[in-house]
Structures are given as structure tokens and as C-alpha cells.
């Protein structure tokens, strides 16, 4: 196979120029040439185990050729089948497995079954952030300082990815870190709609075209267009503001698909870090967040879309293009390497050109194989360094603390996050005019399974509580704005009759609101009356025993995701920023715990909010 990667003019884009050399090889029965055949069990057995009826496909028609596109998404720096928070092999109630080493085993089987030259492997983004492994090599022992190869780059190179699209989380550690990771990748890293601020010039490679040899016929030229998520400009505002803008996915695809066709692409695949629903988690000021189906419907010339971002398992979705009437096939593989999407595209050579005549797609569960030992070996030393790190003790807890009820009760373990945030902000603003303002703090229940055991608390316990790589900020809000904010947060609960049985686990996640979007304040006293309608639930809002007035000002400790507009909470994104030292909240918790040596709820736990029904506390 050979690859053509689109060149562009100044300003200089951030991309790698990659090529796969042609290799002479023997012809196969399907007419495509074979390169680097990898030995493994039959892929048909893997597909059959996954319950896919296409596992025993009929042979292609005479003169036709079938190619296979494989795809991952939302790997989130999961290299091996390991849960760093539990310090054990990953397990869940569904029996899933995670990690690129597991993905590699399926990829090898598919390549062995179909022939290496019959297949391509793409990724739809969110690859380098999301696990302690990703955090460690970005912030604890940064590869940008050590010169080491990033573990995910090392594994993707070893597997032999053909192209990778950027997800929004690729921007979490800043553009310099992202550039370094891209420089280590041996395939193109794509994002056609991420442009230099104030221009339409892509900051990264927009697309790449790979030629697949066919005996006695012209090569099949497969193009893949990479698209990232518009939410980058909100969620990573501090990293991209004034540097990177992200265009609408439909607009960018409409611009680049004709360019790819003109460049000779017979098949056009889009790798999009975008869900398929047409909805957004933010307001209407930005292009649609989950636009994969819109791209399929509105942009002519696309054959298949690999998409991600929503962490769903969608084996196949078919969307009819409004302009051409042609069917576009889409697939989303479940996150963390739990699934591999597989597209089979049957091509016919008609009137001197290749075109897709038939298509099918599925996802394969990676729990049907074992970890690829070669891929485990690639990252073994780095993995072991992270295991050692996360098991480092930081403090002793006087009692066991749990987040199991943090979604409906004021818990000590979440109060600990707020205590750290409040203390950090107070120290930072000491001696400034803002030091006179009362400091309150916001935290959300990220992980109901988080615990601090009685006794020794380790870094992995802290990481399990605060699972995101957020940084700490502080902004000024008024009493009226905080009331609006809390009302918005309270939509998380369904409306519950005053005399209904107490069943709090059934009251949460109203309107599909995730746990991480139920924000709780410390430093203020209030009730959340879930017997009332959304917008009229916050009762008894007070500070130091006195009702909060509309114009009263507060200094609010908040994470950067929320302050940038993530979740669509009112007022916070436009509030004046007083503190932004880029301190990672997880690291602040570790430092605070290490300095104190002891975690004692008596020092910080105050039940300042509660669920009520018609004024009566639920608990």
C-alpha cells in the first residue's frame, strides 16, 4: 500500500508526513496483493463469537473486490487490560475487556483472515488522555521532558494504524504536548476542521489517501478525512484560544470530500470524533457536537463514517444522503478498546473506476481474545512504572469514605475535594482584594465507586475519586447567579412526590444528565426540593446563617472544564476569572493529603446541602 497525505500552505500545519512503502508480494485469490501476513486464529471465529451474521459471508461477485476498514475510538490511554484504580485486571458486570493490546489481537486475526493488503485501520480520537497511564506520561513524568516515546504512540505504531483522527481530549495537555505526540506517530494524525485561528487553514493534516494494489486493475484509492469536535474551543479554551478554531463538521466535510474525490479517492471514509445524535452538551453558539449522522445525510460523496465520542457500541447505522439518495454506513466502537468496528466494503470496477456496491458493518467484542503479548511488551516498563506510582501512599484516613451515595447526599469524600479547592484558592488570593470575598467551591460526583479506605490512602485512591485531568480556577459569581447555577444543576433529579418511597438511585440522571454534571456547592447552605418543578427547587440558600442576597459576591473555586462552559451551566463561563494557575486538581488533592498526613472528616465534612420534599428532608 502507498499513502498520499494532503499538503498545505503556511501557516505551517501540525502534522506528520507518513508513507508506507510498496512491497512486492504474491497475489491472493481475491486479486489483491498480500503484505506482511500476520499469523492468528480465523477472524471468522471472532466475528461468529461476536454474534455477527456476516461472519460467514458469501464470496464477492466476479470482478468485485472486498476491502475491510477496522476502527477504534475513545481509547483514552488504555494500553492493556488493567484497572489502575482497582490495581487489578479490568472487569465489569458485562465481562468487557479494555486496552490496545486486546484490540491488537482482533486486528491481527482480521488481517490474517482477509490479508494485510485487504485492510486498513483507523481511529476516531480521544487516544492519549483518560487513564492514569495517560496522566502519568503527560504530567508526572512527561514524555516531552524525558524524550520517551508515548506509550500510546508506541502501541499504535506497533499495531500499524493507517490514520488517527484527533479527539477533543487530545488537546487537554496543550498544543506543545499534542505536537510532540503527533511527531512520534508513524501514520497521519487528522483533523480537517481544526484550523489556525482567524483562518481556514487546517492546523493538522486534513486527510490521507492510501492506494491498495489490485492485480490486473488500477489500485483502489481509499481516502480518510479526520474531523474533531467543536467543543474543543470550550473544554480546552485555555490551551487553544487565539490559536485553534474548530469548524462545523458538516461544513468541513463539504469542503474536503470533493477535494479528496478530485485527488483520486475511490472510497471516502470519515473518521469523526463526534456522536451521531445531532445534539450538543453546550449551547447553540458552537456547531453541533454530535454531528456524524448529519455529515452522512448532508455531505455527498461519503461511503462510510467511523465515529466516536459518545462511548457507545453502535455496530451499524445506515443514513441516506439527502442529495444523492445513496446509503452511508456508520459504526461506533465502544470506548477503551472494548470493541473494534469492522466495515466490509464490496467494490466494483465500472466504467474505469472503483465504487462501493455493497457494505456492511459490525463491532467485535475484544473479550473474545486475549491480550497480544507483543503489544503488552511494548509498554510493559511504562505500565509498571504507573502501577508503582499509583500505589504510593499519600496519607492515612481515620475512617472509610465512600462516594456511593454522593449523588444524593452530602458526603465527606466529596467535601474533601471542596476542602482542597477552597484551601488552594484561599492561599492563592491572600493579600489581594478578592481575599475579602467569601470562598465557596464546586465539585461533582465523578465516580460512585470511589473510596478512601480506613488507613492508608494511595494515589490510586485519589485518582479513583478525581478521574479527570481538570485544573483549578476561581471566578466571581453573585448570589443570584449562584441560585441560577444551582437550579440548573438540580435538573439532575426527577420530580418525586412528597410521599413516594425513598429510592434515591432511581431519582438521578434526569434528562440523561450524567453524574459529573450534578454540581454541589460547599460553603453555602441550601436544600434541593425534588418535589418541585425544575427551576424552582433551591430553598433556604444561605451563607453563615444569613440568606444569600442577589447582589452578594462570592469567589467560586471551580474546575476549568466547568469554567470554560462544559455542561452548559449558566453564568460561570462569562464570570470574571480571579485565579488560573493551571494547578491539576488531582495533584492538588495529593499534595494537600501528603502535607496533612491525615484525612479526618471531622476537619472538613459539613452537611451543607440536602434533598428535601415539600420542605422535609429526605434523609
What topology does this entry show?
Layout (H helix, E strand, L loop, with lengths): L1 E4 L37 H7 L14 E9 L9 E2 L4 E2 L10 H15 L4 E5 L8 H9 L2 H4 L4 H9 L3 E3 L9 H10 L4 E2 L3 E3 L10 E8 L2 E11 L4 H4 L1 H4 L3 E3 L2 H14 L4 E6 L19 H7 L5 E4 L6 E7 L6 E6 L6 E12 L2 E13 L7 H18 L2 E5 L3 E2 L9 H18 L9 E5 L7 E2 L2 E4 H7 L6 E7 H11 L30 E3 L2 E5 L8 E6 L2 E2 L5 E7 H4 L13 E3 L5 H12 L1 E2 L9 E5 L2 E2 L2
Parallel strand pairs: 2-5, 5-6, 6-7, 10-12, 12-13, 13-15, 18-30, 20-28, 25-31
Antiparallel strand pairs: 1-9, 2-16, 3-4, 8-11, 9-10, 14-15, 16-17, 18-22, 19-21, 20-24, 23-28, 23-29, 25-26, 26-27, 31-32
Helix pairs in contact: 2-5, 5-11, 9-10, 12-16
Q: What report would you give on this structure?
A:
The chain has 16 helices and 32 strands. With 619 residues, it is α/β, with parallel strands linked by helices. A hairpin with a 2-residue loop joins strand 9 and strand 10 (217-227). The radius of gyration is 26 Å and the shape is globular. Residues 8-41 and 51-60 have low confidence and may be disordered. A 7-stranded mixed sheet has the order 1-9-10-12-13-15-14, with helices on one face. A 6-stranded mixed sheet has the order 7-6-5-2-16-17, covered by helices on one side. The protein has a 5-stranded mixed sheet with strand order 24-20-28-23-29. 25% of the residues lie in helices and 26% in strands. The longest helix has 18 residues, at 373-390. It has 2 domains: 2-21 and 44-386, 4-Layer Sandwich (Purple Acid Phosphatase, chain A, domain 2), CATH 3.60.21.10; 392-617, 5'-nucleotidase,  domain 2.
Amino acid at each position: 500500500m502507498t499513502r498520499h497525505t494532503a499538503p498545505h500552505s503556511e501557516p505551517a500545519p501540525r502534522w506528520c508526513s507518513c508513507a508506507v512503502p510498496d512491497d512486492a508480494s504474491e497475489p491472493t485469490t481475491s486479486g489483491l496483493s498480500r503484505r506482511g501476513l500476520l499469523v492468528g486464529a480465523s477472524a471468522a471465529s471472532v466475528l461468529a463469537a461476536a454474534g455477527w451474521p456476516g461472519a460467514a459471508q458469501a464470496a464477492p461477485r466476479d470482478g468485485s473486490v472486498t476491502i475491510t476498514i477496522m476502527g477504534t475510538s475513545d481509547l483514552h490511554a488504555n494500553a492493556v487490560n488493567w484497572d489502575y484504580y482497582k490495581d487489578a485486571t479490568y472487569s465489569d458486570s458485562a465481562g468487557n475487556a479494555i486496552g490496545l493490546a486486546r484490540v491488537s489481537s482482533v486486528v491481527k486475526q482480521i488481517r490474517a483472515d482477509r490479508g494485510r493488503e485487504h485492510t486498513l485501520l483507523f481511529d476516531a480520537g480521544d487516544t492519549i488522555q483518560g487513564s492514569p497511564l495517560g496522566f502519568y506520561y503527560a504530567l508526572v513524568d512527561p514524555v516531552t521532558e524525558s524524550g520517551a516515546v508515548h506509550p500510546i504512540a508506541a502501541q499504535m505504531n506497533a499495531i500499524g494504524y493507517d490514520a488517527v483522527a484527533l479527539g477533543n481530549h487530545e488537546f487537554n495537555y496543550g498544543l506543545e504536548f499534542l505536537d510532540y505526540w503527533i511527531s512520534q506517530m508513524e501514520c497521519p494524525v487528522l483533523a480537517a476542521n481544526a484550523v489556525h485561528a482567524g483562518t481556514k487553514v487546517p492546523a493538522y493534516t486534513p486527510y490521507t489517501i492510501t492506494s491498495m494494489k489490485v492485480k490486473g486493475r488500477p489500485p483502489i484509492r481509499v481516502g480518510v478525512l479526520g474531523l474533531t469536535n467543536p467543543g474543543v474551543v470550550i473544554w480546552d479554551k485555555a490551551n487553544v484560544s487565539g490559536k485553534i478554531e474548530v469548524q462545523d463538521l458538516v461544513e468541513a466535510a463539504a469542503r474536503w470530500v470533493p477535494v479528496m474525490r478530485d485527488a483520486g479517492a475511490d472510497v471516502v471514509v470519515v473518521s469523526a470524533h463526534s456522536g451521531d445524535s445531532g445534539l450538543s452538551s453546550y449551547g447553540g453558539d458552537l456547531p453541533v457536537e454530535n454531528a456524524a449522522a448529519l455529515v452522512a445525510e448532508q455531505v455527498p460523496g461519503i461511503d462510510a463514517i467511523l465515529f466516536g465520542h459518545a462511548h457507545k457500541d453502535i455496530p451499524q447505522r445506515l443514513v441516506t444522503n439527502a442529495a444523492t439518495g445513496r446509503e452511508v454506513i456508520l459504526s461506533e466502537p465502544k470506548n477503551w478498546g472494548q470493541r473494534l468496528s469492522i466495515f466490509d466494503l464490496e467494490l466494483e470496477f465500472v466504467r474505469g473506476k472503483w465504487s462501493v456496491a455493497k457494505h456492511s458493518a459490525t463491532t467485535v467484542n475484544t473479550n473474545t481474545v486475549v491480550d497480544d503479548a507483543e503489544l503488552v511488551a511494548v509498554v510493559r516498563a511504562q505500565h509498571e512504572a504507573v502501577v508503582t506510582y499509583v500505589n504510593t501512599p499519600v496519607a492515612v484516613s481515620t475512617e472509610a469514605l465512600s462516594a456511593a451515595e454522593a449523588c444524593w447526599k452530602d458526603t465527606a469524600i466529596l467535601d474533601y475535594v471542596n476542602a482542597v479547592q477552597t484551601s488552594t484558592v484561599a492561599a492563592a488570593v491572600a493579600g489581594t482584594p478578592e481575599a475579602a470575598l467569601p470562598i465557596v467551591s464546586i465539585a461533582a460526583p465523578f465516580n460512585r465507586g470511589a473510596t478512601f479506605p480506613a488507613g492508608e490512602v494511595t494515589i490510586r485512591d485519589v485518582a479513583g475519586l478525581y478521574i479527570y485531568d481538570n485544573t483549578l480556577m476561581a471566578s466571581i459569581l453573585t448570589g443570584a447567579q449562584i441560585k441560577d447555577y444551582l437550579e440548573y444543576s438540580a435538573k439532575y433529579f426527577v420530580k418525586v412526590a412528597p410521599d413516594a418511597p425513598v429510592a434515591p438511585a432511581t431519582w438521578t440522571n434526569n434528562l440523561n444528565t450524567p453524574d459529573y454534571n450534578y454540581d454541589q456547592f460547599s460553603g453555602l447552605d441550601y436544600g434541593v426540593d425534588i418535589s418541585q418543578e425544575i427551576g424552582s427547587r433551591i430553598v433556604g440558600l444561605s451563607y453563615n446563617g444569613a440568606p444569600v442576597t442577589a447582589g452578594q459576591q462570592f469567589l467560586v473555586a471551580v474546575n476549568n472544564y466547568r469554567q470554560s462552559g462544559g455542561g452548559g451551566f449558566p453564568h460561570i463561563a462569562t464570570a470574571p476569572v480571579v485565579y488560573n494557575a493551571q494547578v491539576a486538581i488531582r495533584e492538588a488533592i495529593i499534595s494537600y493529603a501528603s502535607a496533612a498526613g491525615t484525612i479526618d472528616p471531622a476537619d472538613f465534612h459539613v452537611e451543607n446541602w440536602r434533598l428535601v420534599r415539600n420542605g422535609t428532608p429526605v434523609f
